[in-house]
């Protein structure tokens, strides 16, 4: 734990190596999570949101206290707020050239017809769940955040995370697994159902 706090503390004072380590350990997971969420604006990609998230984190790190796990929750919370702002801005401006479905799934991503892989199956399966359950499972089971970091990222209590996780996993146990979905991607979601994050 002391090494984790030290890493964040070093990043706070501008240590480039500490920032690189934090970036390398969290960016991939952050990108995966943002890809499961609709941006609301066709001109803003998950990669754009990741870059903006790190920029905001660098500007605000002086006000952060905690270790790496707390930093992950804080960082994901920044990304959630930026994604929400992007969706609100796109709705206000009505800049999306595609018609909005009456009741779209919250995590649906467009794919080519007939192309399905494990990651696509995971996205579509999570999109069938109620929004909170899908977001909690995306963070705990797909990205690998613990309950506390997930609670921080979503702005809810750890108890609410545990309840949403339990309900979401219960619903997922009833979802059939297609043969086309790849085993590693499915195991990242389905295989960890019996495990509980810290």
UniProtKB/TrEMBL annotation:
Show the InterPro entries listed in the entry.
RNA_pol_sigma-70-like, RNA_pol_sigma-70_dom, RNA_pol_sigma70_r2, RNA_pol_sigma70_r4_t2, RNA_pol_sigma_r2, RNA_pol_sigma_r3/r4-like, WH-like_DNA-bd_sf
Q: Which part of the chain is the RNA polymerase sigma factor 70 region 4 type domain?
A: 121-172
Gene Ontology biological-process entries:
DNA-templated transcription initiation
tRNA processing as a keyword? no
Q: Keywords assigned by UniProt? A: DNA-binding, Sigma factor, Transcription, Transcription regulation
Give the highest taxon in the source lineage: Bacteria
State the Gene Ontology terms under molecular function: DNA binding; sigma factor activity
Matches recorded under Pfam families: Sigma70_r2, Sigma70_r4_2
Residue ranges constituting the RNA polymerase sigma-70 region domain according to the UniProt record: 22-93
- Family per similarity comment: Belongs to the sigma-70 factor family. ECF subfamily.
Q: What is this protein called?
A: RNA polymerase sigma factor
* Organism encoding this protein: Nocardioides guangzhouensis
